[in-house]
Amino acid sequence: MKYPTFMRRLNRGIARFSGAIIFVISALAVYESIARQFFNSPTSWTLNISCYVFIWAIFLGSAYAFQEHGHVAVDLLRDFIDRKTRPSRTVRRVLAISGYCISFIVIAVFLYGGWRLCMRGLALNQMAPVTFHLPLIWVYPSIVVGSILMLLTLFFMILDLFSGGEEYL
């Protein structure tokens, strides 16, 4: 099964939305700089909002980074094997699938932890411990949504490799 087009489009669209979030964060930073420098009137909310919105941008953009080989990869084992032998495509495929499966497990743990944070934040009505009191239930779901997107992306990447695709080797 080839990596699905709908997943490419979904990840690309969400990555664009993530980029728009970063643009808004940049605009808030410019606003804060102007307010502080020229009007001697700094805000108490821009930094806090920017930090929490940035968390959304990071988690939403991570699936696209997987899809486009944008995450940092540890090629230590593959480089070692390349130096010792001329590995076949099968060996490279097994190494890639193994690495993506390990990533899948780590992100599944993220998803579990994010879900627990969401449930605790909802039950306890947790607020951000900063000057701008934002309910953390608006921040924690970023972990869940981003993890689900990354797991779906990894799932389709692994399926692509099992079916003979070479894009994610």
Description:
With about 170 residues, the protein is mainly alpha-helical. The protein has one domain (about 5-160). It is built from five helices and no strands. α1 (about 5-40) runs antiparallel to α2 (about 45-65). The longest helix has about 35 residues, at about 90-125.
Computed CA radius of gyration, to the nearest angstrom: 20 Å
Mean pLDDT: 89
Strand content: under 5%
Based on Cα principal axes, name the global outline: elongated
Distance N terminus to C terminus?
15 Å
List unreliable stretches of 5+ residues.
none
Task: Report the structural category.
Answer: mainly alpha
Order of helices and strands: HHHHH
Q: In which range does the helix fraction lie?
A: over 70%
Summarize the structure.
The chain has about 170 residues and is an all-alpha fold.
Topology:
Elements: H1 5-39, H2 46-67, H3 76-84, H4 89-124, H5 141-162
Helix pairs in contact: 1-2, 2-5, 4-5
Search tags:
169 residues; mainly alpha; 5 helices; 0% strand; elongated
